[in-house]
Amino acid sequence: MVFCIRKAVFTDDHECIKNIGQQIKSLGVPIELGLPFDFYNSFQAIKRWLPRLAEELRDHSVPCIAIHAPEGPVVTYQPEDFLDWAHDIGDLSNKVGARMIIFHPQRASMIDDDEALALLSSNIKSLQQETTATVVLETFSGGERFNYKCLAAARLPLCLDTSHMGHKDAVTLVEKRHDQIKHVHLSEAQGRVTHRPVGKEGKAVMKRLAELRWDGTVCIEYLDRYVKEMIEDCKWLTGIYGDI
Ligand SMILES: [Zn+2]
């Protein structure tokens, strides 16, 4: 398995992008680059600094394992409408050698609708043809988004997020669909607070994945205030499971 930590950049970050390669390099562990949450809405502004961001990461040989492009329309009637914004993410991923691209399943009124799922599937496949990274969708237990069960039934490649679903459901998904899980966002939820450092539950998920000889990529995805814990956990998890 390969481990990395979440490192987010923000929409108005063009100033700090100047030094971001050095900053990330100094963390001493590989990263998953989190693009701004409002990537789609601020796309025109962000588009201007994406090439510079890629250069920064390449110039400093930053190991970028994954790119997280959270929000944007992933269900569109024409693949071109999706590729219109997703293409740049595929391009960035190719430039920095990322192995995974992660999208959130869209908030949509047509959730659970077969047609929407078919459109989602064909859009993901279109982007997959443009990039060497694996394109995956993150698991959510419901609400306004495509439920992880729909994504799993449609055989879409998954990013298991251990904070976005109950522990029991996460374990069941690992048992039944580990072949479909390509990437993991590892953290632990406590009450309503998600993305806390792993405890008993997160460790149990890792142990089971290892027993199943699962050899994908894992992002330690804690809230920013836990950056020290992210780095430490990335190192010890690599020490335990890095050879699988
Ligand atoms: Zn996540």
Textual characterization of the structure:
- The protein is α/β, with parallel strands linked by helices and 244 residues long.
- The protein has one domain: TIM Barrel (Alpha-Beta Barrel).
- Helix content is 43%, strand content 19%.
- It contains nine helices and ten strands.
- It has an eight-stranded parallel beta barrel with strand order 1-2-3-4-5-6-7-10, surrounded by four helices. It has a two-stranded antiparallel sheet with strand order 8-9.
- The mean pLDDT is 91.
CATH architecture: Alpha-Beta Barrel
Question: Which stretches of 5+ consecutive residues score pLDDT under 50?
Answer: none
Overall form: globular
Number of helices: 9
For the largest sheet, list the strands in their spatial order: 1-2-3-4-5-6-7-10
Strand content: 15-25%
CATH topology assignment = TIM Barrel
The biggest beta sheet, please? 8 strands, parallel, barrel
Bound ions, cofactors and other small molecules, one mention each: zinc ion
CATH superfamily: Divalent-metal-dependent TIM barrel enzymes
- Mean residue pLDDT: 91
Structural class: alpha/beta
Question: Which CATH first-tier class would you pick?
Answer: Alpha Beta
- The number of distinct β-strands equals 10
What is the strand and helix layout of this fold?
Elements: E1 2-8, H1 14-17, H2 20-25, E2 31-34, H3 43-59, E3 64-69, H4 79-96, E4 100-103, H5 114-128, E5 134-138, H6 148-153, E6 158-161, H7 167-177, E7 181-186, E8 188-190, E9 193-196, H8 200-211, E10 217-220, H9 227-241
Zinc ion is lined by residues 138, 161, 185, 221.
